[in-house]
Design brief:
Layout (H helix, E strand, L loop, with lengths): L7 H16 L5 H14 L2 E7 L8 E7 L2 E7 L12 H6 L13 E5 L2 E4 L2 H19 L4 E5 L3 H13 L5 E3 L6 H11 L5 E2 L6 E5 L9 H12 L3 E5 L12 E3 L6 H14 L5 H7 E2 L1 H8 L4 H8 L3 H14 L3 E3 L14 H14 L9 E2 L42 H7 L5 E5 L3 H4 L3 H9 L3 E6 L4 H4 L3 E4 L11 E3 L5 E3 L15 H12 L9 H9 L6 H7 L1 E3 L20 E2 L3 H5 L20 E6 L13 H9 L5 E3 L1 H6 L7 E5 L4 E8 L7 E5 L40 E6 L3
Parallel strand pairs: 6-7, 6-15, 9-10, 9-13, 10-11, 12-21, 15-16, 16-17, 22-26, 23-25
Antiparallel strand pairs: 1-2, 2-3, 4-5, 4-17, 8-14, 18-19, 19-20, 22-27, 24-25, 24-27
Helix pairs in contact: 4-18, 5-18, 6-13, 8-11, 8-12, 8-13, 11-12, 14-16
C-alpha cells in the first residue's frame, strides 16, 4: 500500500517518479498507483550504482530500474558527497531522460533559427571538412573547445582539441570559480581546499550557502558541527538558506568582503592570535603582508562593509582563540568565485587568513586533499596527440588564471576580433550563461563554425551550425571519476536504461567517430572499457567490482592530519607574497581594491546566487523543478522593505529592472533578508530558447544585465559588477 504520510523528501522522490511515467503517456496517477502496487509485488527492480548530473558535484546515486525504465533514485551510501542522500535537483533532473523536448538527431542550420535533420555521417564529414579547412587557412589556434566537464569529457575533450593541434580547451569556471582558483593557487598551490566542517568549532561562510547547494553531505556535516557546538557565521548581502543553521548573519555591503577579511587579519596580528609557529615553518613573505595589514583596522573596514568594528574584532578574536579548528570556508562561486573586480584578492586573503590560523591540514580546519593513483593507457598501443606548441588563447592576457581551465570567454572576444574561427561546445551554454547574451550572439555570428553537443536545444545550440545529440547521463557509461579529499576514492557513472532515442550517442563515441572523419582516429583507437581498465590497473580493483559498487573509497590512503604536505607553489610554502603576481604586474601582497562599480542612492547592485532546486539554467526546463518555482514564486527578485517603501513598491508588484545592458520585468519579493543596496535575483532563469517550453519566459536572465567583462587578474566574468535601477510598472 502507498504510504499515507509523505515527507517533503518522499514527495520529491514520488513526484520525480510520477513525472517520469507521465512523460511516457501513462494514463494518470490513479492508474499509475494501482500499477505501482501491483508491480512492486511481482516485478524485479534492478539497482544500478552511478553518479548524478544535476550539478557539477556528481554525487553518488543508486538508480532503481523497473521494467527497463528508471523508476526512482536514491543517494549512494558510500559516496562522500551524497552519503545516502540526494537533493531535489538530483531527483528532478533525472526526468530529462524521458523529456519530450530532447534533441533526438543531428541537425544542420539552414537559416537563422531553422535546422534540418541530417545523418551522423553527413554531420561528421561536413564538420571535419570545415575544421580541416579552417585550420589549413588560419592555423589550429583559431579553434576552441569549451565544456562543463564531466568524467568522460575531462579525458576526451582535451585529447580531441589537442589532436586538432589547438591548445584552446576551456571550462565553465570562468563564471564559477576562476577568481577563487587563482587566489588559492598562488597562495596555497591548489585551486581549492576542502573544509573539515564537522570537526570545526568556528566556521565562516562568505557568500556560500550549503542550504542552497550543493552536496547533501555538506549540509549533514554542518548540522553535525552545529550539534557539537560550533559557531557558524554567514557573511552575505542575502540571508541565504544556510541561515537555519547559522548563529549570526553579517549583512555585508556587496563587494567589500575583501575589506572584512583584511581587517580580521589585522586583528589576529594585533592580538597575537596568529599561529606564529606555522607561519615561521611553512610560509614566506609574512612580514611584508603583516606590515600592509597595519592599514586595515576594523574601524577602516566598518566604513566600507557596514559591519561594526566591534563585530569584526569580536569575530576575528573568537576565530583566533578557536584555531586551528576555525576557518573561512573555501567557497565556490560565492562572493569571491567570479563576482567582483577584487575577487581574486579576496580569494588570496581568505586562503592566507586560514594559513594565519594554522589550520591547514588540521582537524577542523582547511584540508588539501589527496587523489587516488590511477593508471593510463599504454602510449605504445594508444598514442596521445602531441601537446600543442601554441599558447592557449587568454594565457598571455591572464597569466594568473589556472591554465587547465583557462578563460572561456576569451573565445567570444577573439571571435569578435576575427581571431577565433571555430568553436565546439559540449555540455555547456555560453550564449546564455558565460557572458552578456547580446555580445555572445554577435561574437558567435562572426565564426565560421560552431558545433554544439548537448541534450537540450540551448541558446548556444540555436546559434550553432551543427548540433549533435548527446544521450543523457542515465543512458551512458562514463570514464572513472577520481574523488579527491581527506580520503580519496573513485566513482563510476553507469548506464541505467537503454537509449530512449536511437539517433543519440554518448560523448566518447561522438569524439571517436568525429576524430576518424578528421583524420586522426589513431588517437582514439580504444574503447571506453579499455580506458577504464587502464585507469583501474594500479588500484587492484577489478572493473566488475567497481561496476557492482559504483563508489569505492581508499581509507588506507587517508591523509595524516597534522602533517603539512609540500605545497605546489614556487617556494613550496604558503606565499603571503607572490612573485607570480609581481611578474604579472600586480602587487605581490594582497591590498584593498574597490569593486569596479558601486550603486548610488537611486540604484542597486544586482547580485545573484543559487536556489536549492536548480543548477543555473541547466535544470530550468525540468517540469517537476520548475513547478516548485512557480508554486512558490521563486523567480522573483528580492528587495529590502526600506528601499521598497521609498519606491512605492509592495510585495508581489511587477517592476522594471534596468541596467546599462538590458531592461527586464519581474515581480518583487520584499524581504528584510537582503541588504538595502542590493537586488538579489536567482541565477536559474531567463531561458529564451523556444524549444525549452517549460523554462522559456520564466523570470529573467541575470547575464542579460552583466556587461561583457574580464576580472583583471583571473579573467573571471565580474558577475556582480552590475548597477540597476528599479521602478514599479503596471502588471
Amino acid at each position: 500500500m502507498l504510504d499515507s504520510k509523505i515527507s517533503r523528501r518522499s514527495f520529491i522522490k514520488a513526484s520525480a517518479a510520477t513525472t517520469v511515467l507521465a512523460s511516457a503517456g501513462t494514463a494518470g496517477f490513479q492508474d499509475w498507483s494501482s500499477k505501482y502496487v501491483k508491480a512492486s509485488e511481482t516485478t524485479e527492480i534492478k539497482e544500478i550504482a552511478s553518479t548524478c548530473n544535476g550539478c557539477s558535484s556528481k554525487c553518488g546515486i543508486i538508480g532503481h530500474v523497473k521494467n527497463g525504465r528508471l523508476w526512482k533514485l536514491t543517494g549512494h551510501p558510500d559516496h562522500p558527497y551524497s552519503k545516502g542522500k540526494l537533493c531535489a535537483r538530483g531527483h528532478g533532473y533525472a526526468t530529462l531522460v524521458y523529456s519530450k523536448e530532447r534533441l533526438t538527431q543531428p541537425l544542420k542550420r539552414v537559416s537563422e533559427g531553422k535546422f534540418e535533420p541530417i545523418s551522423w555521417d553527413q554531420a561528421y564529414k561536413e564538420i571535419a571538412d570545415k575544421l580541416n579547412k579552417i585550420i589549413k587557412e588560419n592555423g589550429p589556434g583559431v579553434v576552441s573547445l569549451t565544456e562543463d566537464p564531466r568524467a568522460t569529457g575531462k579525458f576526451y575533450s582535451p585529447r580531441f582539441i589537442q589532436a586538432l593541434g589547438s591548445p584552446n580547451y576551456y571550462t565553465h569556471h570562468v563564471v564559477c570559480s576562476n577568481s577563487r582558483d587563482a587566489g588559492f593557487l598562488h597562495s596555497l598551490g591548489v585551486t581549492a581546499t576542502s573544509a573539515d566542517i564537522s570537526a570545526a568549532k568556528y566556521i565562516m561562510f562568505i557568500g556560500r550557502s550549503y542550504g542552497d547547494a550543493i552536496r547533501p553531505s555538506s549540509v549533514q556535516s554542518l548540522a553535525d558541527a552545529k550539534e557539537n557546538g560550533a559557531k557558524i557565521v554567514i557573511v552575505d548581502p542575502r540571508l541565504n538558506n544556510t541561515g537555519n543553521l547559522a548563529n549570526e548573519w553579517l549583512a555585508i555591503r556587496p563587494g567589500t568582503d575583501l575589506a572584512l577579511v583584511l581587517a580580521m587579519s589585522h586583528v589576529l596580528i594585533k592580538q597575537n592570535l596568529h599561529d606564529t609557529e606555522f607561519i615561521n615553518n611553512y610560509s614566506i613573505g609574512f612580514e611584508e603582508y603583516a606590515k600592509e595589514l597595519e592599514n586595515y583596522t576594523p574601524e577602516w573596514a566598518e566604513k566600507l562593509t557596514g559591519i561594526s568594528a566591534d563585530t569584526i574584532t569580536r569575530i576575528a578574536t573568537d576565530m583566533g582563540k578557536a584555531k586551528p579548528k576555525a576557518l573561512i570556508e573555501q567557497s565556490w562561486r560565492g562572493a569571491f568565485g567570479c563576482n567582483y573586480e577584487n575577487s581574486t584578492e579576496t580569494g588570496r586573503a581568505v586562503a592566507l587568513f586560514n594559513a594565519m590560523l594554522g589550520n591547514i591540514q588540521k582537524q577542523g580546519g582547511s584540508i588539501i586533499g589527496t587523489k587516488p593513483h590511477l593508471g593510463a593507457l599504454d602510449p605504445a598501443k594508444y598514442p596521445s596527440p602531441k601537446k600543442p606548441e601554441l599558447k592557449k588563447a587568454g594565457q598571455e592576457e591572464f597569466p594568473l588564471a589556472y591554465e587547465e581551465q583557462g578563460v572561456a570567454t576569451i573565445v567570444a572576444k577573439n571571435a569578435m576580433e576575427g581571431k577565433m574561427k571555430a568553436a565546439i561546445f559540449h555540455h555547456s551554454n555560453p550564449a546564455l550563461g558565460y557572458g552578456n547574451p547580446k555580445y555572445m550572439k554577435k561574437a558567435f555570428s562572426k565564426m565560421d563554425l560552431i558545433v554544439t553537443i548537448d541534450v537540450q536545444m540551448s541558446e548556444t545550440a540555436l546559434l550553432s551550425h551543427y548540433i549533435l545529440p548527446d544521450v543523457t547521463y542515465i543512458e551512458r557509461d562514463e570514464a572513472i571519476e577520481s574523488l579527491s579529499g581527506k580520503t580519496p576514492g573513485i566513482a563510476l557513472r553507469q548506464q541505467m536504461v537503454e537509449k530512449v532515442h536511437p539517433e543519440t550517442k554518448p560523448i566518447h563515441q561522438i569524439y571517436s567517430e568525429l576524430a576518424k572523419a578528421c583524420g586522426f582516429s589513431q588517437y582514439f583507437n580504444f574503447s571506453l572499457d579499455e580506458l577504464n581498465e587502464a585507469m583501474l590497473a594500479p588500484t587492484g580493483i577489478t572493473y566488475q567490482q567497481l561496476r557492482q559498487k559504483g563508489t569505492i573509497m581508499f581509507p588506507d590512503m587517508t591523509i595524516e592530519l597534522g602533517k603539512m604536505p609540500e605545497l605546489k607553489t614556487p617556494s613550496k610554502k604558503v606565499e603571503f607574497s607572490s612573485e607570480k603576481f609581481k611578474e604579472a604586474g600586480f602587487s605581490p601582497i594582497v591590498k584593498w581594491g574597490e569593486p569596479k562599480v558601486s550603486p548610488k542612492e537611486d540604484s542597486f547592485r544586482l547580485i545573484t546566487g543559487k536556489q536549492a532546486i536548480h543548477s543555473h539554467t541547466q535544470t530550468a526546463n525540468t517540469p517537476i523543478l520548475m513547478q516548485i518555482t512557480k508554486d512558490y514564486d521563486l523567480e522573483r527578485i528580492w528587495m529590502n522593505p526600506v528601499r521598497a517603501k521609498d519606491l512605492g513598491i509592495k510585495d508581489g508588484d511587477l517592476v522594471e529592472v534596468k541596467s546599462s545592458e538590458a531592461v527586464s520585468k519581474v515581480r518583487v519579493k520584499v524581504t528584510e533578508r537582503i541588504h538595502p543596496e542590493a537586488i538579489f535575483v536567482p541565477s536559474h532563469y531567463g531561458i529564451t530558447s523556444p524549444y525549452q517550453k517549460t523554462g522559456v519566459g520564466v523570470g529573467f536572465g541575470y547575464m542579460e544585465h552583466v556587461p561583457f567583462d574580464f576580472e583583471a587578474r583571473s579573467g573571471a566574468g565580474n558577475m556582480q559588477e552590475v548597477i540597476v535601477k528599479v521602478r514599479k510598472v503596471k502588471g
